[in-house]
């Protein structure tokens, strides 16, 4: 188990370094970052002084090393637009995104797992068809469109929910549904497939044969085994959702890290964009690492691979 | 050589249906696949013949006729789906928008398909270090938030159709690599691969004529799913204002432009979104259907 964790940790660290290098090199994709920063009207001298000021005149690898060293210490430089440390900007906005992410994944799990179980208990029944329809529709639904429809119905027509903002828990209802629905289809399909698989196994037949009540068979014996891959998927989806929250946050004007990313990209605020890409990647890496460890702990067969 | 009539009832009784007949039966017995394919073909037809089908020029502005409602909300047949905030015919923009979506979906899926398949097949076939490197690259790619990276790169390089296509193509290869790697691993140890090697076939030949045909069904499924993915991502990027730029008729952009008038004219948002949903739904239904139809475990 310890070897597995160490190996997996080593991989995670290596991935993290590679991602950090890629997000750093984005800055150089634009050509000359100093010219981009100075704007179109700047003179050659202005650009040169900016180049010196931000250290763009040094070799790229040196700059990367410098940036990484500071980033590890939690210093991502200063935002070009806000003129504030990027780290504190992100930290301030991250709570909204994390709240949204946790609500979203909870919503997805609370709808997908019961639906998946119900669908697996009675394959081809009405409930199975409804579950299938919801998952097929969910995969094709553009999340920005879904969000706008919810706003039209529940905020404009019915007036039940506020259309935008993040000042109260009520403001999180629609964003949670939109973000959660994005993660729901995959979780539902995996739960259903896992349950179908487990329900046809020998130990379920044994449990039924010895007269265990159906509820006990389904939840103590079947679901506990079928849920293992779902845990891992949920962690991965959580990582994806934080990265995908940019769309949802922009529709509902939730001023979280995703909204900050959108603003910063539109404003060419590269230090903030770099840091956000790195932060979202780190979340994904940490979540998948935890999921793998959890999986290995729950299911010893996973430790060998 | 005597001509053998496969449809001869007597022969069928002896030999059973041919593989081709069984495939046809599976295809035409699969509702999702059929519905998806029909809708997709219709939309493809609309995209190809857009200049003939569109009643107006999708770029022609007419400030006298702004925001006319669609026919079913009291508009006229002159503009069946009404006009947008610049007086452009909504139906024509919708029709030309099918071109943008399908083009982006197809080309992005093609680019990512080539990259991902090459990586996945190499990893599965050669194993060892190659596999380690590819698996590592897949891990790195999955860790990068797609929407964020795509937005940033498109913003830096400037939003245009070509840039969006290439950026999405370079980002969406992960599922190709994962699925092709697993599929190659499955067939690599089969007898026909060993036989081809034994008669002295070169590595490229083994890969191209033994491995590829036997993993092609999985490849087709992933192509459809990634096409849908790319179309949704383009719409999201354009919606956020950092994808395809105006006045190009992109469905995501149309939703974004209609968003400000959503309070009084919700159809400006509903119509392009609904068409986008329909297209992605059709592609996904077809992909899921192809998976069901070609999966060996369903061949009874």
The rough form of chain A would be described as flat
Q: Structural class given helices, strands, pairing of chain B?
A: mainly alpha
Low-confidence stretches of chain B: none
Poorly predicted regions of chain A are none
β-strand percent of chain B reads: under 5%
In angstroms, what is the radius of gyration of chain A? Answer: 24 Å
- N-to-C series of helices and strands of chain B: HHHHHHHHHHHHH
Number of E-type strands of chain A: 0
> In percent, how helical is the residue content of chain B?
over 70%
Number of helices of chain A: 12
CATH architecture of the domain at 98-256 in chain A: Orthogonal Bundle
* CATH-level-4 superfamily name of the domain at 98-256 in chain A: MetI-like
Q: How far apart lie the N and C ends of chain A?
A: 11 Å
Distance between the termini of chain B: 31 Å
- How confident is the prediction overall: mean pLDDT of chain A? 84
Structural class of chain A: mainly alpha
Q: Let me know the largest β-sheet of chain A.
A: none
Radius of gyration of chain B: 24 Å
Protein name (chain B): ABC transporter permease
Protein name (chain A): ABC transporter permease
Organism (chain A): Lutimaribacter degradans
């Amino acid at each position: 188990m310890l070897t597995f964790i160490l190996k997996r940790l080593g991989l995670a660290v290596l991935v993290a370094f590679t991602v950090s290098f890629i997000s750093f090199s984005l800055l150089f994709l634009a050509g000359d970052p100093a010219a981009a920063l100075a704007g179109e009207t700047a003179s050659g001298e202005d650009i040169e002084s900016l180049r010196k000021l931000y250290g763009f005149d040094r070799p790229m690898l040196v700059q990367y090393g410098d940036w990484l060293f500071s980033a590890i210490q939690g210093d991502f430089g200063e935002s070009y637009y806000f003129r504030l440390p990027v780290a504190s900007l992100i930290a301030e906005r991250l709570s909204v995104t994390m709240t949204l992410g946790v609500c979203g994944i909870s919503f997805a799990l609370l709808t997908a797992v019961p639906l998946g179980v119900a669908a697996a208990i009675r394959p081809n029944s009405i409930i199975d068809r409804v579950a299938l329809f919801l998952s097929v529709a969910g995969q094709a639904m553009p999340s920005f469109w879904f969000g706008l429809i919810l706003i039209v119905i529940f905020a404009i027509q019915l007036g039940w929910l506020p259309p935008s903002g993040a000042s109260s828990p009520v403001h999180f209802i629609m964003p949670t549904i939109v973000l959660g629905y994005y993660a729901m289809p995959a979780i539902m399909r995996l739960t259903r497939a896992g349950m179908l698989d487990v329900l046809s196994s020998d130990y379920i037949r044994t449990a039924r044969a010895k007269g265990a009540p159906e509820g006990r068979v389904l939840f103590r014996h079947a679901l506990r085994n079928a849920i293992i891959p779902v845990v891992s998927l949920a962690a991965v989806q959580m990582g994806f959702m934080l990265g995908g929250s940019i769309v949802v946050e922009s529709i509902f004007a939730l001023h979280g890290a995703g909204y900050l990313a959108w603003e910063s990209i539109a404003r060419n605020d590269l230090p903030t964009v770099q840091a956000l890409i790195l932060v979202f990647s780190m979340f994904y890496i940490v979540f998948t690492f935890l999921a793998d460890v959890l999986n290995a702990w729950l299911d010893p067969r996973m430790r060998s691979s | 050589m005597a001509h053998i009539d496969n449809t001869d009832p007597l022969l069928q009784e002896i030999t059973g249906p041919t593989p081709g007949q069984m495939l046809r039966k599976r295809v035409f017995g699969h509702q999702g696949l059929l519905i998806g394919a029909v809708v997709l073909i219709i939309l493809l037809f609309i995209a190809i013949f857009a200049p003939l089908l569109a009643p107006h020029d999708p770029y022609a502005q007419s400030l006298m006729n702004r925001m006319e409602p669609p026919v079913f909300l009291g508009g006229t047949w002159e503009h069946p789906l009404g006009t947008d905030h610049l007086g452009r015919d909504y139906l024509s923009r919708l029709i030309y928008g099918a071109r943008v979506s399908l083009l982006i979906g197809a080309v992005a899926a093609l680019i990512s398909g080539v990259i991902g398949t090459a990586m996945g097949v190499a990893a599965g076939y050669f194993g060892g270090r190659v596999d380690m490197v590819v698996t590592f690259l897949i891990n790195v790619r999955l860790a990068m938030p797609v929407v964020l990276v795509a937005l940033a790169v498109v913003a830096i390089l400037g939003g245009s159709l070509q840039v969006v296509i290439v950026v999405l193509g370079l980002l969406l290869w992960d599922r190709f690599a994962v699925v092709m790697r697993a599929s190659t691993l499955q067939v690599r140890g089969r007898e026909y691969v060993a036989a081809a090697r034994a008669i002295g076939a070169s590595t490229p030949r083994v890969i191209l004529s033994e491995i590829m045909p036997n993993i092609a069904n999985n490849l087709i499924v992933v192509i459809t799913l990634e096409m849908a993915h790319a179309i949704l991502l383009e719409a999201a990027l354009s919606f956020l204002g950092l994808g395809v730029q105006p006045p190009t008729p992109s469905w995501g952009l149309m939703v974004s432009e209609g968003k400000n008038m959503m309070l009084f004219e919700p159809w400006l948002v509903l119509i392009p979104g609904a068409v986008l949903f329909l297209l992605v739904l059709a592609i996904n239904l077809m992909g899921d259907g192809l998976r069901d139809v070609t999966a060996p475990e369903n061949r009874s």
